[in-house]
Amino acid sequence: xxxxxxxxxxxxxxxxxxxxxxxxxxxxxxxxxxxxxxxxxxxxxxxxxxxxxxxxxxxxxxxxxxxxxxxxxxxxxxxxxxxxxxxxxxxxxxxxxxxxxxxxxxxxxxxxxxxxxxxxxxxxxxxxxxxxxxxxxxxxxxxxxxxxxxxxxxxxxxxxxxxxxxxxxxxxxxxxxxxxxxxxxxxxxxxxxxxxxxxxxxxxxxxxxxxxxxxxxxxxxxxxxxxxxxxxxxxxxxxxxxxxxxxxxxxxxxxxxxxxxxxxxxxxxxxxxxxxxxxxxxxxxxxxxxxxxxxxxxxxxxxxxxxxxxxxxxxxxxxxxxxxxxxxxxxxxxxxxxxxxxxxxxxxxxxxxxxxxxxxxxxxxxxxxxxxxxxxxx
Length: 378
What we know:
The chain is an alpha/beta fold. It has 16 helices and 13 strands. The two termini are 12 Å apart.
């Protein structure tokens, strides 16, 4: 099938973008799915959004023909059955994959529940492992968001490496331009933030290593802590009780720590990035790490973990540190707070890296995967 130059109709899963299901707080998969919905049309793809969930709570995608539990059960008891949607190909951006009567591309973001079960919700871990393993087998082709993820997908899910393409995540091109200063100032004032703070972004989970960041911050000289707040953005996730307790204890002790467990949309988040002085991302495990690219695009120097996929994302544009070393994290934070020449080098390198990692480029490469799958190239 020659699909070059042809506008393809693709069904794209939008479940993770539904405000009625997420409460308006998107995780990394939701950000990814929403970006593809916006950008794939620019790559010559006619996108049709589909969502699992009660129809009354859906506003982005059309309801799938069957609820996910029922569709999964049908796959089990009727192995030859196939679900129909009117599209050339279906792209599942999360683990909710069912057998279709057309090719299925699945994005598997990481193998966290299998690789590190100790960091995941034990109530959901077994189910999620089972669903992701089945998803990997149902897909005709798999998209990984980093080269690092390939080995884990092969090892943990049994995916044939020949069926995997790497398409990195990105950032909206609008982030490459500074937002209006008065809008940034208004957002900062609303949250009691003073420009120049240390910032981290991500759901509070053990793998995000926020506790080590807090320790590193508390170990900085008092004069630096008095001048620069530590701003933590992220909802409390699975197994975050100890981290939440650490944050609350620091605040009760009068430390300059601010925890925003939710922000009202991407524009407000962009404003908070713009007001930061240093971005710190000490994660122990990432399939990709979108906040790093958001910080690069925002012109913020970055301290980043040297673990898993993060060095692949930073591409040498950040100060890479051992996330298990509180001392190393603190030293890098202090260096970027005090050394203006180093700050400017990191900011410039980060901007160059961000230009290479836009959602429009992600969509272009994703569309190329679709065309290759449909033409028999994968």
